């Protein structure tokens, strides 16, 4: 499992000419994108789609147009078109190798402990067996808690997987004003002919496909708000 934090290598950052020449908006955008790439499903990378990068960087279109070259120059582009920070990729690979090594070491230790266990009496074995059965009983799963902003959106259109919708929501990290705009857009769409005809995509699709911005649905050739 990936850690929720990563080392920042302060000396390298302070000595970097590229960072020293960045504007404040570009520096902020780079760090927001770096954090998003660490938490992304694919290992420390982000999609190369600039509209998504702009949303993750939390800047408007005008600001993105001004800082995009500074920001994109900070990252590298992989063969699959996704962007990444070389240093963050190294950190991710190191963490993964250590995690695998720790898992193997733990398995060997458990095997040795089992070999050293002495035979128990029949009564002790029965008691241990009963205890194991109780421990193996399925535990009640704790109810997942979601941010209030996401719950507001979800309650308006509870369709599709909630966890999938939350993953898409978390990637864009909208603020309250953006969520309010989405809610208004969805309420408006519910009055449309398309909604009456039964065209109501899953919530995760609304977020991932940019339906809240009225973009053309990929592969469908139609505009959601026509």
Summed up, what is this model?
This protein is mostly helical and 226 residues long. Helix content is 61%, strand content 3%. The model is unreliable at 215-222 (pLDDT under 50).
Structure write-up:
- There is one protein chain.
- With 226 residues, this protein is mostly helical.
- Helix 3 (24-39) packs across helix 4 (50-57) and helix 3 packs across helix 5 (61-74).
- Among the domains are: 10-87, no CATH class; 148-213, no CATH class.
- The chain has helices at residues 10-15, 17-20, 24-39, 50-57, 61-74, 86-116, 122-136, 148-156, 162-172, 176-189, 193-196, 203-208; strands at residues 45-46, 76-77, 83-84.
- Helix content is 61%, strand content 3%.
- It is flat and about 70 Å long.
- A three-stranded antiparallel β-sheet has the order 1-3-2.
- Residues 95-144 are annotated as: Disordered.
